[in-house]
Write the structure tokens for this entry.
Amino acid sequence: QVQLVESGGGLVQAGGSLRLSCAASGRTFSGYSMGWFRQAPGKEREFVAAISWIGARYYADSVKGRFTASRDNAKNTVSLQMNSLKPEDTAVYYCAAKWGSYNSEGTYYNTVSYDYWGQGTQVTVSS
């Protein structure tokens, strides 16, 4: 029902910046809450950031102050601006979507809350 395509990943030096984008297709994009997750080799997929259908933003402690999520409903896109990148940020980054409603804050942190997922984009941060 909803297709998501990530882009913008690449190789960057520690301290540098990248901007990831997620292009969405489907009905009433503005009604979806969007999340960003990442997964490094041998590790669980972990929460990075989310922006709800009403614009509330949530961040993992590890990225607060460095990453910023945003959305452009007119273009059906969600972005993740990543600054001051660290080698620990190296992972495949995924965007995800869930139909919006008034949820507990904790629901945005869990992969099982989301209905649709993109294929991911690789981010590699060198030291």
Notes: The two ends are 40 Å apart (CA to CA). The mean pLDDT is 95.
